[in-house]
Specification:
The chain is of the alpha+beta class. Helix content is 28%, strand content 22%. It has 18 helices and 35 strands. Strands 23, 25, 28, 30, 31, 33 and 35 form a 7-stranded mixed beta sheet that branches. Strands 5-6-7-8-9 form a 5-stranded parallel beta sheet. Helix 5 runs parallel beside helix 6.
Length: 812
């Protein structure tokens, strides 16, 4: 631990919770306590390891009783303290108390400085097997304090102590349990970077103050994330800023797992803790950018600092969309089940891509972003001195290139599975590409472990990330746990596996289209492309002509009108070709036109595809040309693109740069502002838009996955069109986040890294409308708004932002 302690001190931290998961800090190296004392590092222990004793110190020496299927003890247990081996205060109290007392005696005898963890959780970082009654926890804390008093001969108030409200432990606090005032109460995040509780601002200050436990690395539901850094600094800033403003400033600790790979977010965490006032919301983009450049300058000198800082910034933004370990899980809602009462309403599919393969070219666009970032990172690395290449590989290139490769692997994998269903001759080519990408992943890991810095970091890149979810290979815990059997990691494999098909020799033409996973011939519905609009911003519509055989053929695509252009109109098809469609709007008629397109193959097939062209007149519909315009059945707007921001003396919406999955977000400030009651004159955001649709529309608000930190139901916003009555929305209403948090809707939100809520509104007329979003609670962060007028397609990130008319003032 000497190198860990030195690293901590260099980063201006001074407090450590030693590793668990089979590790016993005091036993694995008997000099650890003396080393911590020599470095001046304060030791603590996690929520599952009270009284300065790691849980493994119990597990290594206690034998729990063996029980039969009915729970009856058939083989008695034992432990070094004359007990029955159970980690149970209710059933083995005297042994547990003696075990704790030894931990305090050791702290006194070895003279190291520490904060004593109070409370108790179940063995294996689980809920207490004894139940969660307040009376039991009160007794446990009282006994622990008595032990402190008896062994130290000191008033416990003079000994630093902490009680971590982790997972279900927060229930005790919510139900009224309060430890003595000298105990530091540690509020935890939900393991996914979203804080769960703040102290009530009107509560008198505690002598022990408040603490924070945060995560950059996690083992647990809904899935482990341990491979590479996935922190978005804007989100980290927001949560640390909120905690600090609510008075949580006595003790901060962050889970960094094995540390390697978390260098950047850990550095930021400790820099913020050292000087919270440096990072204020006004000018935040500039200050975060300066910090990133300082980080790059420190490690790589001035010549490439700006480029490396931008690479790391973009990496953090892209990575925070979804953990890499979750790239083979799609989560959806069962429309036939009630989300509020039935956990089965949230449906997991561990053999599907969360990103759409067919709608908005989503998977292509996201993977392309990663590939371009990796190319930049490779170029930047070649311009660095040779002596810095190893450091660059560890801190920048590996995580960028390996994640880009993983996205390319997943794109090949899931496209292969789609192609196999459609019978495309290109199916096996994509299986080969997936295999090649997996080989590249393994080669990068091997290079990290064996070559970089002469093998200094051997073993630090053995973490699996591809094979999650394979229940058939390693059992029922595969949904969340890394590939392992009996607690021992097994080799990573691609899951779901790719498919290979037998391809006949004869040519056989088929067609797939933009916005659909069907193909023709075969589908029982007409082939209809997404509607064309002069205001569309989504990618251009396309027709894919593919071969189900090995023999090439010729194809001709013939639209019924000259103003609908196709490129290419003719082509030779070996495996497949993609033809892009464009409308000449100067010649297209007004109104709605349905244009048939004949797709003729030289092997004798003809397939008809229909294009719907909507050429609408904005001037007739809108009072003025301003704001976003409906196209393709929706209006989509980034939250930080309002046409008006209405502030009050008490609060104002402000922009948080790059905190969202597709851009920046808006949050009310100060974060300690009181609850507002719309409509009134409360702080609000206004979004002008031109809508052609009347009747019922659905407004989706994408927000950060925040919890009810103020315990007042929320956070909430309110929303309405024009002068309508605002509809209040509680974004945690369906998550139960203040209870155990580990429920399916919370898992969906944190996995998708977004909270999506919907309201329905009735529009009586087409034309210009103003969508108004009011602040109700602080701490809410809004990323994106989508008005679904009937054509929004299913996707992970939502549809691209709509075309926007800018007023003269906006342009200036």
């Amino acid at each position: 631990y000497a190198k860990v302690f030195e690293t901590l001190l260099r980063l201006r931290g001074n407090y450590v919770w030693p590793a668990v998961w089979g590790r016993a800090f005091a036993e694995d190296d008997p000099d650890n306590h003396a080393t911590a004392k020599a470095y001046g590092v304060v030791l603590g222990s996690s929520h599952e390891a009270p009284m300065m004793r790691g849980i493994e110190e119990w597990n290594r020496h206690a034998l729990p009783p063996v029980r039969d299927s009915e729970g009856v003890v058939v083989v008695a247990g034992s432990d070094p303290y004359g007990g029955n081996g159970q980690w149970s205060f209710r059933n083995n109290a005297e042994a547990i108390k003696a075990y704790w007392a030894d931990g305090i005696r050791r702290m006194i005898a070895e003279g190291f400085e520490g904060t004593v963890a109070l409370g108790m959780r179940g063995n294996g970082d689980l809920c207490l097997s004894d139940g969660d009654g307040i009376e039991l926890m009160e007794e446990i804390i009282a006994v622990q304090r008595q032990i402190l008093c008896e062994i130290t001969g000191t008033d416990p108030a003079e000994i630093p102590q902490a009680w971590a409200l982790y997972k279900e432990v927060q229930r005790y606090w919510d139900q009224g349990l309060r430890p003595p005032e000298d105990v530091t109460v540690i509020f935890s995040d939900d393991n996914w970077g979203n804080l769960r509780k703040f102290p009530d601002p009107v509560t008198p200050k505690r002598a022990g103050g408040w603490g924070l436990y945060y995560h950059f690395d996690y083992v647990g539901d809904s899935r482990n994330y341990k491979w590479v850094d996935t922190a978005n600094l804007a989100n980290v800033w927001d949560q640390l800023h909120q905690a600090y403003r609510y008075g949580v400033d006595r003790l901060w600790v962050v889970n960094v797992g094995d540390l390697k790979g978390q260098e950047l977010p850990l550095s930021f965490f400790l820099d913020f803790a050292w000087d919270p006032e440096r990072f204020t919301v006004d000018g935040l983009a500039g200050e975060l950018g300066r910090w990133e450049r300082e980080f790059a300058l420190l490690h790589f000198g001035p010549d490439q600092a700006a480029e490396i800082a931008d690479l790391l910034h973009t990496y953090g933004v892209l990575q925070s969309r979804r953990k890499p370990e979750l790239l083979n899980r799609s989560i959806s809602l069962d429309p036939d089940r009630d989300l509020a009462t039935d956990p089965r309403a949230v449906v997991y599919d561990d053999q599907a891509s969360p990103f759409s393969l067919t709608n908005y070219r989503e998977m292509e666009r996201v993977t392309g972003q990663w590939q371009r970032l990796a190319e930049r990172a490779e170029r930047c690395g070649t311009e660095l001195p040779d002596a810095w290449r190893d450091a660059y590989y560890e801190l920048v290139l590996y995580q960028v290139a390996a994640t880009a490769n993983l996205y390319a692997l997943r794109q090949a994998e899931f496209t292969n599975l789609l192609y196999a269903r459609q019978g495309r001759s290109a199916t096996n080519d994509l299986a080969d590409e997936c295999d090649a990408r997996f080989a590249s992943d393994q080669a990068m890991s091997d290079y990290y472990n064996a070559v970089v810095a002469g093998g200094k970091w051997r073993g630090f890149q053995t973490q699996s990330k591809v094979g999650y979810g394979d229940v058939g290979r390693y059992g029922p815990e595969a949904s969340w746990q890394q590939p392992e059997i009996d607690g021992v990691a097994i080799a990573d494999e691609v899951f779901p596996p790719v498919k290979r098909i037998a391809v006949p020799e004869a040519a056989s033409m088929a067609v797939a289209i933009d916005g659909s996973d069907l193909c023709w011939p075969g589908a029982r519905v007409a082939a209809v492309l997404p509607a064309f609009s002069p205001f569309q911003t989504q990618p251009e519509q396309y027709i894919e002509v593919f071969n189900r055989g090995m023999t090439p053929f010729e194809v001709r695509l013939q639209p019924a009108v000259s103003w609908l252009r196709i490129e290419p109109e003719t082509a030779a098809v070996d495996r497949q070709i993609r033809a892009v469609l464009r409308v000449d709007w100067s010649k297209a008629p007004r109104g709605k036109t349905i244009v048939p397109i004949l797709v003729k193959g030289s092997e004798g097939s003809t397939i008809v595809v229909h294009a719907i062209v909507e050429h609408r007149d904005v001037a007739q519909r809108a009072r003025r040309r301003r704001g976003h315009v409906e196209a393709n059945g929706y209006v989509s707007t980034a939250a930080d693109h309002p046409t008006a921001v209405i502030a009050t003396p008490d609060a104002c919406w402000k922009r948080i740069p790059d905190i969202g999955r597709t851009g920046s977000g808006m949050e009310p400030f100060p974060v300690t502002a009181s609850r507002q009651n719309p409509p009134g004159v409360g702080p609000r955001l206004e979004y002008e838009m031109v809508l052609f649709t009347t009747g019922v529309v659905t407004v989706w608000v994408h927000a950060s996955t925040r919890n009810d930190t103020l315990s007042n139901g929320g956070p909430r916003y309110a929303i309405a069109f024009d002068e309508g009555c605002p509809q209040p929305v509680d974004i945690t209403a369906d998550t139960g986040a203040q209870d155990l948090i580990m429920n399916r809707q919370w898992e969906r939100n944190t996995s998708d890294n977004v909270n999506r809520t919907a309201t329905r509104h009735v529009l009586s007329r087409p034309g210009t409308h103003v969508l108004k979003l009011w602040m109700v609670d602080p701490t809410i962060v809004v990323h994106h708004l989508v008005v679904d007028t009937g054509g929004m397609l299913a996707s992970y990130l939502g549809p691209p932002e709509s075309y926007r008319f800018e007023a003269k003032k906006d342009r200036e």
